[in-house]
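Incident log, support desk, overnight shift.

02:14 A customer reports that sequence design results differ from what the structure should imply. Their input is reproduced verbatim below. On-call engineer (initials T.W.) acknowledged and began investigating.
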């Protein structure tokens, strides 16, 4: 990297850091990183120490599954507002020796005491956004353990070792993480243990400031020694439940003991000659597939990347797909209609008929979009051909905002994803999984005689994009950049994004031109400048004939590294 930034990159970075300073001449993309190529294995995460930890595992003979869990554990230390063992996770894995795609859903369930009636009795008319009433069973740790036991080559204790070292010895906080950490100071200040853990000097760490979390190191050592049963019903679990009950929460010790991840069959569509895979509900991945199917008949390439007509079509397709999320998606055991029906030709044609090509719609039936969250996404691939698409989250920054004293980690607020509206798949109820924003994506290339289950496919790309409700619409944008506009993987990640917020409101990144903004406004959209922080952070790995190519999002602190 030259000592002096080139002017286009400098302007782009200014636009991301200070969205009010919009120059008349806008940069073309978010930044200008190069694609990372590697002959043997590669890891891409949102924080450099996590990427390096995952790479070290690969270089010492571990596989992609080992590397992914190791990197995720390090991220729980170095990016603690986004992720940790107090949250949930999902992963999609290409298992090379089985030549198939598998998926794991490690999202926890509502506690036995979490009823709609209990919340209404407390005066709630809608689910709270934070606090103990939003705490559900954390599923991530059980997911890490299940992945390693079934497909890994190292133990959970070995995977946790680098994270323990960074928690114990400390590390310098990176700039974007520092910014996100500071944004959550008000949340941390509400809980004395959260404040003591994450604001040791009375404030969030500044860029480059050294941070240690000895409580979390002790927690991870206890899990390394005693296994996940320490968390799910053992001494640590008892401490969690005791604190949750003191504050008026709903999770019981039996809820922790009963927690188990589930192995899932991913759902897919064929788009532009590639098969796009997402996880089924309780996950929002189906919205990506629905958006792509709605958009498929339109000549998006002729419209031009990020032109007003192009963005308008994507925004309106997003509204339709996310309305269906709100009405039809929740715990898989409580769905009104199955995913395959939502992706059927008849259903998609009906939804497409509501897309107004000239005017923005304030509201589309059957309901509004879902809420935002804070998340990490990472991906890894190894020399044997295994590829992992992996996502872990606390939901909002530092989740519920509650840290059990002495544990060093925050409990998630995933219960905020439920609704109190009765009779819906996502209506809160004991033992139910809440609607989830987390979606690890995957792409395969169908064979000459493609099978619906993808068994004849070849692996092509593991990818994801963190950022709550940005995820499904971000997945669609990334895939269109690749398969409609022919970008390389880093260009597809760097390209300017939109984020539809709610109603008529849409945020656009700085590179999208003033003339496009004016045209969208004329269509009825309410346009605002979107800083990079709300546009999600993406990582992706593409399998080549020999080796891999990877990209990592400049909107985050991370990087792709390989060997």
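02:41 Re-run completed on a clean worker. Output:
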């Amino acid at each position: 990297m030259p000592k002096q930034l080139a002017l286009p990159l400098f302007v782009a970075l200014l636009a991301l850091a200070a969205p009010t300073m919009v120059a008349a001449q806008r940069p073309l993309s978010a930044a200008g990183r190069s694609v990372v190529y590697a002959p043997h294995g590669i890891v891409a995460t949102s924080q450099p120490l996590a990427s390096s930890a995952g790479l070290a595992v690969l270089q010492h003979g571990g596989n992609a599954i080992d590397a992914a869990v190791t990197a995720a554990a390090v991220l729980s230390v170095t990016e603690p507002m986004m992720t940790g063992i107090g949250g949930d996770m999902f992963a999609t894995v290409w298992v090379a020796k089985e030549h198939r795609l598998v998926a794991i859903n490690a999202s926890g369930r509502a506690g036995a005491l979490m009823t709609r009636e209990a919340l209404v009795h407390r005066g709630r008319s809608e689910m709270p956004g934070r606090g103990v009433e939003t705490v559900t069973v954390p599923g991530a740790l059980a997911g890490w353990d299940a992945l390693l036991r079934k497909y890994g080559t190292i133990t959970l204790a070995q995977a946790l070792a680098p994270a323990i070292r960074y928690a114990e010895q400390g590390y310098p906080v990176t700039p974007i993480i520092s910014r996100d950490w500071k944004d959550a100071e008000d949340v941390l200040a509400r809980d004395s243990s959260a404040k003591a853990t994450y604001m040791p000097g009375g404030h969030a760490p500044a860029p480059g400031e050294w941070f240690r979390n000895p409580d979390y190191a002790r927690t991870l050592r206890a899990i390394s020694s005693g296994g996940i049963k320490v968390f799910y019903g053992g001494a640590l679990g008892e401490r969690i439940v005791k604190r949750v009950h003191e504050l008026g929460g709903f999770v019981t010790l039996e809820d922790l003991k009963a927690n188990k991840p589930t192995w899932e069959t991913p759902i897919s569509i064929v788009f532009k000659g590639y098969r796009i895979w997402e996880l089924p509900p309780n996950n929002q991945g189906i919205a990506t597939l629905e958006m792509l199917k709605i958009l498929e008949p339109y000549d998006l390439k002729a419209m031009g990347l990020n032109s007003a007509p192009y963005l308008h079509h994507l925004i309106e397709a997003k509204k339709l797909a996310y309305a269906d999320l709100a009405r039809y998606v929740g715990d898989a055991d409580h769905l009104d209609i199955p995913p395959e029906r939502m992706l059927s030709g008849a259903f998609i044609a009906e939804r497409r008929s509501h897309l107004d090509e000239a005017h923005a719609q304030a509201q589309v039936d059957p309901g509004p979009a879902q809420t935002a969250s804070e998340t990490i996404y990472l991906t890894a691939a190894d020399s044997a051909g295994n590829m992992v698409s992996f996502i872990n989250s606390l939901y909002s920054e530092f989740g519920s905002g509650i840290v059990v004293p002495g544990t060093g980690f925050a409990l998630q607020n995933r219960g905020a994803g439920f609704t109190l509206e009765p009779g819906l798949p996502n209506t809160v109820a004991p033992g139910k999984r809440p609607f989830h924003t987390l979606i690890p994506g995957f792409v395969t290339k169908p064979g000459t005689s493609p099978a619906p289950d993808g068994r004849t496919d070849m692996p092509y790309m593991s990818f994801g994009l963190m950022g709550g409700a940005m995820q499904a619409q971000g997945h669609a944008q990334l895939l269109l950049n690749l398969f409609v506009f022919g970008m390389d993987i880093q260009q597809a990640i760097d390209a300017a994004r939109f984020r539809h917020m709610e109603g008529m409101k849409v945020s656009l990144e700085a590179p999208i031109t003033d003339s496009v903004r004016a045209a969208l406004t004329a269509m009825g959209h309410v346009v605002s400048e979107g800083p990079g922080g709300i546009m999600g952070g993406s990582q992706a790995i593409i399998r080549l004939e020999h080796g891999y190519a990877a990209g990592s999002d400049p909107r985050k602190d991370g990087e792709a590294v390989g060997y």
